[in-house]
Specification:
Elements: E1 2-4, H1 15-18, E2 26-28, H2 39-44, H3 49-64, E3 69-73, E4 80-86, E5 97-103, E6 114-117, H4 136-139, H5 146-155, H6 168-176, H7 178-192
Antiparallel strand pairs: 1-2, 3-4, 4-5, 5-6
Protein name: UBIQUITIN_CONJUGAT_2 domain-containing protein
Keywords: ATP-binding, Nucleotide-binding, Transferase, Ubl conjugation pathway
Family: Belongs to the ubiquitin-conjugating enzyme family.
Length: 194
């Protein structure tokens, strides 16, 4: 018997539609677990270090429950994750919903994922192409997790690093005209992420 289950994801924020997930999910209530030695398991088993680690990361992320952050692997590949970040209420990005992607290479976790914003954001460490300056390449360790990367992304809502900008004119404004920076960040948030 199959039944629908949509309670596993928050629907009020439009996350289901935003990341392209189906409106309903089916659950097979007659599912019988098989032994790990069956050929079905072997055929469907993750075959690389990267994919095994990413399946582990997905479980770890669901256990971590980061506020303001939702992450979903693509239905086509565990190597591409969609990220939905809600602008924290105590920041200039409040009430904004920002979409980003994590792209993992076959060398993950020995090399960092690529991070990119899909939503325009007024920030000196995120350029108009969505590239993000997090210092992942410089500071990456194979023990770091997806949750650590997402915490770094969330920290960008609270502060800019004007000493290592991708957008120098925003960095200059952040340092010299902070009130104007806040005004522009709020305008962009309202225009592009609401």
């Amino acid at each position: 018997m199959m039944d629908s289950n949509t309670n596993c994801l928050p629907s009020s924020s439009g996350i289901i539609q935003a990341v392209g997930l189906p409106q309903t999910f089916t659950v097979d209530t007659n599912f019988k677990p098989q032994s790990f030695t069956t050929s079905t398991y072997i055929i469907n088993a993750p075959t690389s270090i990267a994919s095994r680690r990413l399946f582990e990361e997905l479980y770890h992320f669901t256990e971590a429950s980061l506020p303001c952050c939702h992450a979903f692997p693509s239905s086509e590949s565990i190597f591409k994750w969609s990220i939905v970040l809600d602008g924290p209420t105590d920041t200039v990005y409040a009430n904004g919903t920002f979409f980003a992607e994590l792209l993992f290479g076959v060398n993950y976790p020995f090399s960092p994922p690529e991070v990119g914003f899909l939503t325009k954001i007024y920030h000196c460490n995120i350029n108009s192409q969505g590239q993000v300056c997090l210092g992942l390449t410089r500071n990456w360790k194979s023990t770091m997790r997806v949750v650590d990367v997402l915490k770094m992304l969330l920290s960008l809502f609270y502060t800019c690093n004007p000493h290592n900008p991708l957008v120098p004119h925003i960095a200059k404004q952040y340092v010299n005209q902070y009130e104007e920076f806040k005004k522009m960040a709020r305008i962009w948030t309202k225009r592009f992420s609401s």
